[in-house]
């Protein structure tokens, strides 16, 4: 108990200083914008920069959280939440058909990069920016290094919604904003802009000597022709984007920090893309090898050392790596955005002699976003899906894993969990088990989960964190008492009873019955957990009464052995169900 209190106190301290850093970062960035010391506020207007910054951050949060829901929900029978979450059902009905999930994830990857580049354009400081009279040390840390923008993006635009969506997949995307986001992501893929990735996919499959499993029938002749036309023009655009970006770098026409030689900037560009690629591939490789036997994981010295760290103890280092990885990747994104975003001074010639309109488009940084999406992200993920053990067998992987775990241990992004708790409270999010039960309960109701694909080769959803509840909520923030959890479920049961009275068809009534069974099963599980936890705790605290136990965490006192008192608790559930119906 003392250890838990100490751990909670340390988590609380990290959350407080992380939130303090976030608030300070927001103040600094807002001051930059209204002092016209960011690119967009300087070139257009501070109001537009302010609007675009917050729009991009909020949309990014939908994109990042939506990924967790889209990747985590395919195994669950959609009929279980068709009535309770109609928009989620609509999104998944289309998004999980055929190979649409891969298409969504590909378009979503570009959206993330594009939104980060917009955030950089709106909020990143111009050269020699100075605000609020900050001392040189703070100015260098928060402005020149980009820490203020990195913290805002990670905590507001990414981690906080990933935390909620990884546990509340159904609630998170049950809105039209998420529906629109999924449609935009799939439209980006359909445009063919990223189709060069499919060529990489085929090359990787050929090297691996394995087929790419598809959920669709082979393409017709016309559709095959249309596919290859898009692949060719995507490759052409990618080559041009590389050529234009490198030309701008050597001409000194990017937003790269002043004083950095062009050759150094070019080397930095490729090094950072390599780092991002490694981090993107590592998440695929780590989740892939987690399914392998221990002797298979340790195929080399470096693979053995990496797995020893990654899977030691209760496996908390895997989600810890993902949090640290997020911080690393976003940091690299912002530097790449500086290296690749073009900035042509008035009176200078345009890059490659293009028109003014084309140059304005180049200045948005979207060419850099395209390059980074395909070359530094999707390509590496595809390679890692084919050769996960090869990714573990390098010292670079080991070093990056150590770095990510170190960053996570600092707690610098712990404020994201506070934001997640506030967001969940306001939005009324509930865990998925409240609506559809656990996997075991769904199986008992003859709505068992679908088996995952056996071959992840060529797919982007092999690890897409934090799907399937891989990002744990901090207990000191997310914990609910048994009484609170029970009250929410009883309220749901009341609502379902009311809806059943208004059902107009047998099919609709059947859906409500399935959901009601899930709620009752969840209520029974909560009572069992509370009883087991109470009995375990009273072994050490015999003076404790059941009424005092409502604030204990069930997972801290879990007991898998069957107890006869469980049957009595099930009877109590039935009685509570009858009370709820009245």
Order of helices and strands: HHHHHHHHHHHHHHHHHHHHHHHHHH
Computed over alpha carbons, the radius of gyration is: 26 Å
**Form type:** globular
Q: Provide the β-strand percentage band.
A: under 5%
Total DSSP helices: 26
- Unreliable segments (pLDDT under 50, ≥5 consecutive)? 1-7, 462-479, 544-567
**Largest beta-sheet details:** none
Q: What is the number of beta strands?
A: 0
The span between the termini is 41 Å
Structural class: mainly alpha
Report the mean per-residue pLDDT as an integer.
Answer: 78
- Percent helix range: 55-70%
Structure, explained:
It is built from 26 helices and no strands. The protein has 582 residues and is an all-alpha fold. The longest helix has 33 residues. The protein is 69% helix and 0% strand.
Element layout with pairings:
Blueprint (H helix, E strand, L loop, with lengths): L1 H33 L4 H5 L2 H27 L13 H10 L4 H24 L12 H9 L2 H21 L1 H4 L3 H15 L5 H13 L12 H30 L11 H28 L4 H4 L3 H10 L6 H24 L15 H7 L3 H21 L1 H5 L2 H15 L5 H13 L4 H5 L2 H6 L30 H4 L3 H20 L4 H33 L26 H17 L1
Helix pairs in contact: 1-7, 1-20, 3-5, 3-7, 3-9, 4-9, 5-9, 5-15, 5-17, 7-15, 7-20, 10-11, 10-17, 11-17, 12-15, 12-17, 14-19, 15-17, 15-19, 24-25, 24-26, 25-26
